[in-house]
Amino acid sequence: MPKPLMAANWKMFKTSTQALEFFEDFSETLDSTVLKDRDVLFLPPFTSLEALSDPVRFAGFSIGAQNCYPAAEGAFTGEIAPGMLLDLGCDYVLTGHSERRHVLGESDEFVGQKTAFALDQGLGVILCIGETLEQRKAGQVETVLKRQLESGLRDVPNDVPAEALTIAYEPVWAIGTGEVAQDEDIREAHATVRGLLADRLSAAADIRILYGGSVKPANCAQILSLDNVNGVLVGGASLQAASFVDIVSAGL
Ligand SMILES: O=C[C@H](O)COP(=O)(O)O
After folding, report:
1. Distance from Cα 181 to the centre of ligand 1, integer Å
2. pTM of the predicted protein model
3. Which domain holds residue 184?
């Protein structure tokens, strides 16, 4: 069983000053012995990566970015290359987050290009997948997960090491809505993802599959207890230090 990964995705929240204030509160409050049972990852906006990188890593946590562009450098105004993230000490990058798919219009193919390129450059990747409410109501959960995983992993070698790749299952209808998926929905989706990974990657059994979507201190322990849930990707409830401390320590 891989150690659960507890990831805070701050989306477009917090200046670098606010990020440092949060981190001071968080690290003072958290009992650091939880680190033997949990990995902790912060995904702040690009503008806070430099300020947070050293404090986060010295405290034994990981840091990553919310996005990257699939090229080493070039005329891509406003974009950030994986090598630039590595240079700031990042261990991870998110690809395919639903807000990038549905708000910014990223295609399955583009998500696949980013995933393969970032892995190739040496970043750990958290590939996010998940169905919309319409797709769930139409009985298409498995089809959507299969399509997003196949495209997302298209150029990823089948012997990618388990520690380099993480999958996050985030049903779009549960993100930021307060509506957490039912245990059975999470169990079924995670089992589906595990099965699809097994068809494609040699390290499938050890790849972490995170759940994301309205995770809170009150529901986190129960979610983590479900089969094939190897951590959580938390948005809103990771913005307050006390709340994220409770999430990181949930069930211990
Ligand atoms: O990346 C995190 C997810 O989008 C979940 O966000 P949420 O916890 O605010 O629902």
Report:
1. 12
2. 0.97
3. 5-248
